Amino acid sequence: MTVVGPFGLSVRDQALEADVQTGLAAVEAGLLEATKSEVPFITEAAQHLVRAGGKRFRPLLVMLASQFGDPYAPGVVPAAVVVELTHLATLYHDDVMDEAEVRRGVESANARWDNSVAVLTGDFLFSRASHILADLGPEAVRIQAEAFERLVTGQILETAGPREGSDPVSHYLDVIGGKTGSLIAVAGRFGAMMSGADETVVDILTQYGERLGIAFQLADDFLDIASDSHESGKTPGTDLREGIPTLPVLLLRAQAQEHGRPEDLALVELLDGDLADDERLAEALRLLRAHPALEQARRDTVRYAEDARGTLAPLPECYAKSALLELCDAVVHRAG
To answer: Which of 81, 311, 86, 82 is nearest to 209 (CA)?
Structure first.
């Protein structure tokens, strides 16, 4: 039983393991090839995050979804490269917007060079993804365009914030459905579609990817508060300190507004203050970890992961389905 991909996913079949490993290796080679330029500086900047590594979660999902058709079909690996290039491009842009200094354990592109280089490198990656996509046919181009529209819309919604009178939690779920769920849904869809799987299977794996993507982001929200740095791989409270809205905080704010409990209002005031101070951040984490909002956020994460699991029920029993189910279990495990 070999560990493959994110969260220590284990594949229980040697043939499937070989297919997945071979596919991911081909994707890695494809990413390096797609990020080459005649201009050495562009190659260096474009390969900066590729060489930093990452979970390759989206390519893994493409590979697993392709098992419901012909996993050796010529469009499978290029589709996985397209999805990962798109994801990487958004990271370059996100780091500029968030003024991030570190990404995947290395200096972010905007910190290493400047914002202009980071934005233009992201644009370069988008252009290379489009170039590969053009060879996959007009339907693939349309699907990617629709997903990219959702992704950008999610980012704009996050930047603009919820409209007055609207529910901030529903708004946030719309944001992450666009920013995270849309591209992971495309990974499932492309894997099945490029392998020639039945249209019903394509629809199932698209829905699965969307729901798993939302669960994955909600688990990150939970871990930002609940975990220690050794467990999560990043410093706890990073999102809190940067003022990024996450589900536990939004649920806390909703409860404070609805019930007006002094302790809830005091915690909201603490979160709205200067969390650059380590002691204030530690106190905010301590109080949030004991607050019912965190447990509610955990339950919501589990619910989305279970919804993803439920969409797989009509699929035939096979090792690929077991691996997809295990991804749901892994997300739930991350959220305790």
So the answer is: 311
Instruction: Determine the distance from the C-alpha atom of residue 235 to the mean position of all C-alpha atoms in its chain, rounded to a whole number.
Output: 18
Examine the pLDDT at 105 and tell me if it is beyond 70: no
> Tens of pLDDT along 27-62?
999 999 999 989 888 888 878 877 777 788 899 999
Model confidence pLDDT, tens digit, residues 56-69: 889 999 999 999 99
How far is the C-alpha of 59 from the C-alpha of 297, rounded, in Å?
28
Q: What CA dihedral angle connects 306, 310, 313 and 315, to 10 degrees?
A: -90
- This prediction's pTM: 0.90
Crossing angle between the packed helical segments 262-272 and 278-289, to the nearest 10 degrees: 140
| Average confidence score pLDDT of the chain | 88
| Those residues with Cβ within 8 angstroms of residue 233's Cβ, 6 or more apart along the chain or in another chain | none
For residues 178 and 7, the model is more confident at: 178
Query: Which tokens in the block code for residue 201?
Result: 């299977």
Query: 């490993």: which residue's tokens?
Result: 21
* 178 contact partners, CB below 8 Å, separation of at least 6: 150, 151, 152, 153, 154, 155, 157
